[in-house]
Amino acid sequence: MVRFFFFLIGFGLTIIGSVYIIIYLNLTTIGYNFLDYVNFIIRRIECLNLLIGLIIMYLSLPKEDKNESYIRYFSKF
């Protein structure tokens, strides 16, 4: 349940960050080139939510145990 909660938090942060990155694409219409645009979005905290959200989502995914099949086969329960 906790992992699912953290996954939803990460998903929400990812959505917020990607929406702001798309919104800031309008800067290219007023004369910013691509390098200025990238420099701008790197410095904005709401755009960094994308990276933070992806990290939280990755960490909330279940880890596979390499010996899981061995444990299940020899388990007495």
Question: How would you describe what is shown here?
Answer:
By secondary structure, the chain is mainly alpha-helical. Helix content is 70%, strand content 0%. It has four helices and no strands. The longest helix has 22 residues, at 2-23. The relative contact order is 0.20.
Give me the number of helical elements. 4
How many strands in all?
0
Q: Kindly, what is the distance between the CA atoms of the first and last residues, rounded to a whole number of angstroms?
A: 24 Å
Shape: elongated
Strand content: under 5%
Radius of gyration: 20 Å
Largest β-sheet summary: none
- Structural class, judged by helices and strands? mainly alpha
- Average pLDDT taken over every residue: 86
| Topology pattern, helix = H, strand = E | HHHH
Helical content stands at: over 70%
Return residue spans where pLDDT drops below 50 for at least 5 consecutive residues. Answer: none
Furnish the topology, listing elements before pairings:
Layout: H1 2-23, H2 34-42, H3 45-60, H4 68-74
Helix pairs in contact: 1-3
List the main descriptive attributes of the protein structure presented here:
mainly alpha; 70% helix; elongated
Short account of what is shown:
The chain has helices spanning 2-23, 34-42, 45-60, 68-74.
